[in-house]
Amino acid sequence: MTNHLTDRYFPRFVLLASVWLLLASPALFSQEFKIESQVYLDSQATPIASSLTLFQDKLVFDITIGSDGSSATEVVIFDSRTQSFELLDITKERRLHIEQFEIVRTLETLRQQGSQDDRLVNLVDPKLTEHVETSSRFLRLSNAQLTYEATCDSPSDAAILPAYYQFLDQYTRLTATDPRRLPPFARLELNQAMKKHGWIPSEIKLQLDGGQISERSVKLHSKHQLISRLSEQDKKRIELARRQWTQFKPVSLAEYREIPQISESADSESGIKH
């Protein structure tokens, strides 16, 4: 019998999944900061994905940049006061609201379904081996199917770390609501390893071995640069996103993701409100 979870995740979306797990990595949470991020495939010099993560007051605006290098294609807004997300599809002018408890439900469903498929066990129950080089702030977490390597920094102001890790974890968990992305459990373990040392990532490498779920391996790396203030253009992006937040039409998870495999019953099971 074909496993429904396997059909949803592999092999068609392995590359996209890996890209977004890398983009989920950078963030700082304070009055005003931003992180500029790029993701690269193998050794290519041109990034295949870019994002801006803007922090202002109690909100974080994670902006996916389109192929033109400037226009936003999606904005994910995290409200630390409510621990909730608003996802804005800029092209189709629609939005999706997700509460924290709904994400937790989806994670549990994903873990339960994946544990029943041998091809997914290393992703939903990763059991990673950890290697640390404290002098160079380097981490490696790996199992038979995937390897994360992170080169990190220690922030000059350690007071930002609790809020930073809060956003990092919540954003990583959010990816479980998108069937095009890899299960987030291994990435959550990398987050925990960085938290243990008080580090933030400046570069992350991900290697996903195909094995039974894909015809080929995937290698990507991401670079993240912290900039200590927002530009006027960044503030204009935030104001625009705030307006779109109130103007865009609310839709269901199935409609927002446009994934045929998500049925109304799956929507209900995941706990995502319409």
How are the SSEs ordered, and which strands pair?
Blueprint: H1 4-9, H2 14-23, E1 32-41, E2 49-56, E3 59-65, E4 72-79, E5 84-89, E6 94-98, H3 100-114, H4 121-124, E7 129-133, E8 138-142, E9 146-153, H5 161-174, H6 185-197, E10 200-208, E11 218-227, H7 232-247, E12 249-250, H8 253-257, H9 264-270
Parallel strand pairs: 6-12
Antiparallel strand pairs: 1-2, 1-11, 2-3, 3-4, 4-5, 5-6, 7-8, 8-9, 9-10, 10-11
Helix pairs in contact: 5-6
Architecture overview:
The two termini are 31 Å apart. This protein has a 12-stranded mixed beta sheet with strand order 7-8-9-10-11-1-2-3-4-5-6-12, sandwiched between helices. It is 33% helix and 30% strand. It contains 9 helices and 12 strands. The model is unreliable at 1-14, 25-30 and 262-274 (pLDDT under 50). It has 274 residues and is α+β, with helices and mostly antiparallel strands. The chain is globular. The chain has one domain. The protein has helices at 4-9, 14-23, 100-114, 121-124, 161-174, 185-197, 232-247, 253-257, 264-270; strands at residues 32-41, 49-56, 59-65, 72-79, 84-89, 94-98, 129-133, 138-142, 146-153, 200-208, 218-227, 249-250.
